[in-house]
Design brief:
With 201 residues, the chain is α+β, with helices and mostly antiparallel strands. It contains four helices and 13 strands.
């Protein structure tokens, strides 16, 4: 699992005990005035990753909600002071599970502040993967959330009334009456026009 800074796109892999702050001895240095010298710490709890506030001046927030600590999930928007990070799960972690993802993508998108929190991301152990690097993989709920997000971003908003079959009955009846009235009006207008321009015998 990684944190990706929105402004720069810089990605940082999470490690247990990693301290984030303005101080130069932090593992993730964020030289911003809204970030405290020792702002927050990453903690691995079982298979999950947590962000814990270190009594910072401006606090930490997950998807706009200020908390003292919270679990990190793929797709979350995390803020430290005024600095925003997206929580992402690398594509390689998804493929390692053999799960079907039509359009592989990293998990987080910029518009997730209102997305409800779902099941936590699961972590794949290094020994199970035969790799010295511990990588995190999303749960099926995270994959579903990412799929719904892609569909929402790829679908344009419908204009007008959209699908008539989804409209209330009174709307369909009203539209039928209006349509009938328009057709009748056009027919009467054409009849009047023809009567006006036709020669009289």
């Amino acid at each position: 699992m990684k944190l990706r800074r929105r402004e720069s796109g810089l990605e940082t892999a999470l490690t247990d005990g990693m301290v984030i702050g303005r101080a130069p001895d932090c593992q993730l240095v964020v030289p911003e005035s809204s970030v405290s010298r020792k702002h927050a710490r990453i903690e691995q709890r079982g298979l999950n990753w947590w962000l814990v506030d270190l009594k910072s001046s401006n606090g930490i927030a997950c998807n706009g909600q200020k908390l003292e600590s919270f679990e990190l999930r793929g797709g979350d928007l995390v803020t430290l002071g005024s600095v925003a990070y997206d929580v992402i799960v690398p594509v390689s972690s998804v493929n390692d599970l053999g799960l079907d993802l039509e359009e592989p993508t990293d998990f987080p998108s910029a518009s997730l502040a209102s997305t409800p929190t779902l099941a936590p991301a699961q972590q794949v152990s290094a020994s199970a993967q035969g790799d010295s690097n511990v990588t995190a993989a999303p749960s099926r709920a995270d994959l579903e959330r990412a799929r719904l997000r892609r569909e929402a971003e790829g679908t344009k908003r419908s204009r007008g009334l959209g699908d008539l079959s989804q409209q209330p009955t009174w709307v369909i009846v009203l539209l039928a009456l209006v349509g009938g009235g328009v057709i009748w009006g056009v027919a009467m207008g054409m009849r009047l026009l023809m009567a006006t321009i036709s020669p009289t015998g």
